[in-house]
Amino acid sequence: MSRNPLPEGAQDIDPATVRFDDVSMRYGRAPETLRDLSFSLEPGSFHFVTGASGAGKSSLLKLIYLAAKPSKGLVHLFGQDVSAVPLRDQPFLRRRIGVVFQEFRLLEHMSAFDNVALPLRIEGRKPDSYRQDVAELLAWVGLRHRMHAMPATLAGGEKQRLAIARAVVNRPDILLADEPTGNVDHEMALRILRLFVELNRLGTTILIATHDQDLVARSGMPVLHLDGGQLTRLGSEP
Ligand SMILES: Nc1ncnc2c1ncn2[C@@H]1O[C@H](COP(=O)(O)OP(=O)(O)OP(=O)(O)O)[C@@H](O)[C@H]1O
Ligand SMILES: [Mg+2]
Fold first, then answer.
1. In ligand 1, which atom is closest to the CA atom of 60?
2. Which residue range(s) make up the domain with 150?
């Protein structure tokens, strides 16, 4: 059953988790980085975003996690036109989106455990209420034994999995991951893919930006391909 059942007579509400209508985006006065993108991600779907370096993959993700605004067109999240959501309400929208950043953005002065617990502390939860959940999540990503380690002492694949744990700890509706296998070997990349597939099975909508064609091919999931800022291909890789 849907988490947010529609009220009667509300069948016209857009059920997509993400919908772009003719969206363009530019940095300052530079030429448009993204041009005329239209697509939607249905709840519970799993997509990749591919494209050469500079094609605009990270920029597309920024539009979804509200770190950038379109210069043209509309971005809808969970059926809401983002441009119509007052600034004070945007954090509530943002909380429904988990992000694994290309450069991790772990807090170096905090242990692995505290990095993962941080989003819950920010929500005002007390340590007693989340200690076990955080420990279980760290075990799920294979970091039980590294729980008290500082990020600087973790290997690339461990940092990657820590960033994933932090992104999903408050059970976001959508998980965005930017090049999540960029720093790990093939075996670790497959392990990380399995984590995403499992999360997706639990109902999380997934969007992963990647260069890793092997990962895309193995997953068999559909692809949004960016070329020069335009969406040139939709559907599964051959
Ligand atoms: N903060 C910024 N200010 C100005 N230009 C930017 C900024 N971030 C990205 N760009 C430019 O926007 C374009 C798309 O960059 P983006 O980072 O989205 O590409 P990408 O597909 O994620 O590349 P990569 O595979 O290397 O991560 C590039 O030309 C880049 O130089
Ligand atoms: Mg990028």
1. 18
2. 108-170
Å from CA of 126 to ligand 1 middle: 38
Closest residue (by CA) to atom 6 of ligand 1?
27
Residue 17 lies in a domain: no
Span from the CA of 14 to the centroid of ligand 2 (angstroms) = 29
> For position 238, what pLDDT does the model report?
45
Q: Which atom of ligand 1 is nearest to the CA of 209?
A: 22
Mean pLDDT of the 139-161 span: 95
Chain segment 151-166, per-residue pLDDT in tens: 999 999 999 999 999 9
| 169 alpha carbon – ligand 1 mean position (Å) | 28
Contact 166, 101 (CB under 8 A): no
User: Does pLDDT of 2 surpass 60?
Assistant: no
Tell whether 205 is covered by a domain: no
